[in-house]
Amino acid sequence: LAIVVLEYIQVKSNAFEKFLTGKSKTVIQNGQLDIKTLKKLRLTVDQLEIRLRNQGITNIQDVKTATIEPNGQLGYELQDDAKPLTVGEFKNVMAVYFPQLTKLQDSSVQSPTQPKSNPSSNIFEEVNQKQERHPKYLQ
C-alpha cells in the first residue's frame, strides 16, 4: 500500500518525484565533458567511456548531449553528422539525385497484374477480427 501511495504522489508532484528519484545529470554537452558533474557523480572518464562504448559510440565529440539518468542508465543524443542514415532519408536523397532511378524501380516493383498496396492497410486486421469458433486443437 505504501508503494502505491508513494508512486501516486510522485505522479502528482514533480517536487516529490525529484526528491525521491532525483533528476538526470548532463555529463556531456556539445561534445565536451562536464568534469564538475562527473566528480559530483563520482564517475571517472574511463567509466563514462565504457558506457559510451556499450552504446556503440567511439568518439566523445560525436555526442551532442549525454546524461546519467536516476536509474544509472546513460541517455544520449548524437551530433547531426554522427547520426546513422535511415532508409527513408536514403530514399529521399536517391529521389533528389536520381529521379529516373526511382521511376524505374516503381515500375518494376508494381506490375500491372499486382494490385497497388494500400499504405493505410491494417496489418493487425486478422488479429482484430473476432472468430466465432475456436480451432479444434485449442479446445
Structural commentary:
With 139 residues, the chain is an alpha+beta fold. 44% of the residues lie in helices and 13% in strands. Among the domains are: 23-78, bsu07140 like domains (CRO Repressor), CATH 3.30.240; 83-109, no CATH class. The protein has 7 helices and 4 strands. Strands 2-1-3-4 form a 4-stranded antiparallel beta sheet. Helix 1 (2-12) crosses helix 2 (14-21) and helix 5 packs across helix 6.
The low-pLDDT segments are none
The number of helical segments is 7
- Average pLDDT confidence is 82
As laid out across the biggest beta sheet, the strand order is: 2-1-3-4
- The CATH class of one domain: Alpha Beta
Instruction: Work out the radius of gyration.
Output: 25 Å
What would the principal axes of the Cα set say about the shape?
A: flat
Strand percentage: 5-15%
Separation, N- and C-terminal Cα atoms: 40 Å
What is the share of helical residues? 40-55%
Write out the CATH superfamily name of one domain: bsu07140 like domains
Question: How many beta strands in the DSSP annotation?
Answer: 4
Please provide the ordered H/E string of secondary-structure elements.
HHEEHHEEHHH
Quaternary structure annotation: single chain
Question: Key features?
Answer:
single chain, 139 residues, alpha+beta, CRO Repressor, 4-stranded antiparallel beta sheet, 7 helices, 4 strands, 44% helix
Please write out the topology.
Elements: H1 2-12, H2 14-21, E1 25-29, E2 32-33, H3 35-40, H4 45-54, E3 63-68, E4 74-78, H5 87-97, H6 99-109, H7 125-128
Antiparallel strand pairs: 1-2, 1-3, 3-4
